[in-house]
Amino acid sequence: MSSHVLENSADDLSLVVANMLAPECIQNPYPVYKKLRGQPPVNGLLDYPPGTVPGVDTPFPAWVITRYADVDYVLSNPDIFSSEDPMQANSSAPSLMLVNHDKPRHTELRNLAKMAFTPKRIHDNIVARLRNDVSTIIDHNLGVTIDFMTEVAGVIPAMVMTYLMGLPKEDYKKLVRWANAFMVSSDFTPEERQSCNEELFHYFVAKVGERYHNIEAGNEVTDDLMTAFITAEYEGNGLNKEEVILFCITLVVAGAETTTYFLGNLMGVLLEDNSWFERLKQDRSLIRPFMEESLRRDGPPQRLFRCVTQDCDIGGQQIKSGDWVAFFMAAANHDESVFENPEQFNINRKNANKHFTFGRGIHHCLGAPLARIEGEIMLNMILDKCTGVEGSLLNSSRQSGGLLAYGFSTLPLKLASS
Q1: Residue 86 has pLDDT above 90, yes or no
Q2: Among 68, 203, 138, which residue's Cα sits nearest to residue 382?
Q3: CA 32 → CA 37, 48, 340, 403, distances in Å?
Q4: What is the number of structural domains in the chain?
Q5: C-alpha to C-alpha distance for 116 and 353, rounded to whole angstroms
Q6: At CA 251, angle to CA 106 and CA 227, rounded to 5?
Q7: Please, what sign has the CA dihedral across residues 372, 376, 378, 379?
Q8: How buried is 30 (Cβ within 10 angstroms: 0-12 exposed, 13-18 middle, 19+ buried)?
Q9: Is 385 a residue whose pLDDT tops 70?
Q10: How far apart are CA 222 and CA 50, in angstroms?
């Protein structure tokens, strides 16, 4: 192949990467991922980590990593690919706990988080309340055309955050807005994003400060996640007040928006093929594989950033220490070399659970079990109360505000009842 052809090919790929932030690519990035997977990583993506503000912060050019093996390499080598994010740290946003830490501090923080974020606290303290509230939400929306993203999917995850941290239930609406702004997906002005970041931070400064005051005064406090973060100890170490605040913020921004998109994407599959509703209604054992295949094919989290700490080779491309990489879990989830016919929705896929939607290794998402519980309860409640889901994906739209998440901005449908 001539050097001229190679040069033109590289130019074409650079143009593809430059256009990844176009609204049409954000709404459906998978054809672009497929094109990029056929080539070594390409440098030049100028995108924004969570919390940063387009139009205010200046992005670093990043190598785009799309193949399954290459994404696995990045996830499996945290010593080479640092999670400490100088761009996010220098922005107006609060730093995220765990997400932006490396070993050994990451190990200490994760052990503390696991002591607070126990299966008992997730399950026993959440499930009954969530079933009751989801039942009420579905009853309220039966038989009328609604925007599912606003009336159902956008409510459940933020409401769960209020349970977990002992916040007033009505505050869920604030949490939705703040999470949307922080995650650089929905359309906000730079001023709105900065304002939301500040509001989110000051909200938890006040709430955590009030909890500390009550504990120190000997007042009775609720046994929730906020209290657990304050009191958790691992090998004699605990969290200081600022770290508790940042953990609460991290949970909200990492859990509220991505789970909202997950719930919406589940319903999108039901509209895509209406035979699924009756199949799931008759055999509830299909719900878990149905959710897992949705997480693989339509997983909301698209990509994360890492800073390279030593020279390395990724997919035949030499990457230098100090370079920035953007690895796309969603692109890896569609890698044909791992998942046959990746665009097809197939709940009999034997390796569906090999998806990277919740990450892998030391940064595997602690909230993954909670997201699955929310999806399972929502689906079961809809299957219990409804005779079908009516609507057309032609009337829906995918969010186009940023490449961080894949999900619906609007999803009109009717929860039919007899």
Answers
A1: no
A2: 138
A3: 9, 19, 18, 12
A4: 1
A5: 26
A6: 85
A7: positive
A8: middle
A9: yes
A10: 30
Question: Angle of helix 156-165 relative to helix 368-385, nearest 10 degrees?
Answer: 130
Q: Rounded distance, CA 208 to CA 248, Å?
A: 9
Across 145-178, b (16+ Cβ under 10 Å) vs e yields ebbbbebbbbbbbbbbbbbbbebeeebbebbbbb
The parent domain of residue 110 ranges over: 3-416
Element spanning 154, H or E = none
d(CA 319, CA 66): 15
Written as one letter, the residue type at 370 is L
What mean pLDDT do residues 138-152 have? 96
- Is residue 413 classed as helix, strand or coil in its secondary structure? strand
CATH of the domain at 123: 1.10.630.10
Tell me the two tokens of residue 373. 């519980």
Output the CA torsion 247→95→370→111 (10° steps).
Answer: -60
The residues, ordered by sequence, that sit 6+ positions from 329 with a Cβ below 8 Å of its Cβ are 71, 299, 301, 302, 303, 304, 355, 356, 357, 359
pLDDT tens per residue across span 208-262: 999 999 999 999 998 889 999 999 887 788 899 999 999 999 888 888 889 999 9
Q: Which amino acid is at 96?
A: L
